[in-house]
Amino acid sequence: MSALPWATQNAPGHAIGLYAQWTPALDAKIEAAQQHLRDACAAHHDGLVQSSSLGVEDMVITDLISRAGLSVHISTLDTGKLHAETLGLLPQIKDRYGFDIEVFSPVAEAVVEFVTRQGDDAMYKSIELRKACCGVRKMEPLSRMLAGRSAWITGLRREQSGARGDVAFDEDDGSGTGRRKISPIADWTWAEVWAYVEKYAVPYNPLHDQFMPSIGCAPCTRAIAVGEDFRAGRWWWEDSSKECGLHAKS
């Protein structure tokens, strides 16, 4: 479990003040993460893409890519249900790093058909319908994002949930295609992520300041309470593994 510490921090309501703590291991972890990225670039060239959720971990990885001077294609998914604060990061990334982020959206006709049949609140009705909504809004666009790619970079960390406790830095993504999944900050802690954000002034979603460590679609994300797991605010009405399928184990 990955309970979040608040009580000992010194800036209530501000994620950096709540969480950031530089650790003795972080300098080495930063260099190791950049080496994982260099190795991935060398192995995959144009076949490599960063699939960014625009969450804080992925913002850190984008910053690491920039600081290492690497040429990596960066893409994101716009499900049609994201918070305005999430989409607001796109121009900030362009201004800060000069990166144009390719945005993949669901097929409009498929969304209309799903909502017409199941309703706009289908995700609350059953796990099956929620996953079907994720399929239309996330999985299908992801399949287009990854088409022709031999590897993708993610912001997965082992600390995020029990289901992610064995995330590797480089592993098969389970698609059956031999495609690799690269998770360069898999061993970072939440405190280290925010210490990096503080040191390098990395742009981040202001919803993280509102106790949302994991941010997805607006109807499916809430703030978490003291002691709750990192992903407790995702699909909080479900007794599930808190995954949408993007990172499901094969």
UniProtKB/TrEMBL annotation:
The keyword Iron applies. It comes from the Bacteria. Pathway: Sulfur metabolism; hydrogen sulfide biosynthesis; sulfite from sulfate. The active site is at C244. Binds 1 [4Fe-4S] cluster per subunit. Residues 48-223 form the Phosphoadenosine phosphosulphate reductase domain. Gene3D superfamilies: HUPs. [4Fe-4S] cluster binds at C133, C134, C217, C220. Its EC number is 1.8.4.10. Keywords: Cytoplasm, Iron, Iron-sulfur, Metal-binding, Oxidoreductase. It is found in: Cytoplasm. Belongs to the PAPS reductase family. CysH subfamily. Catalyzes the formation of sulfite from adenosine 5'-phosphosulfate (APS) using thioredoxin as an electron donor. This is Adenosine 5'-phosphosulfate reductase. The lineage of its organism: Bacteria, Pseudomonadati, Pseudomonadota, Betaproteobacteria, Burkholderiales.
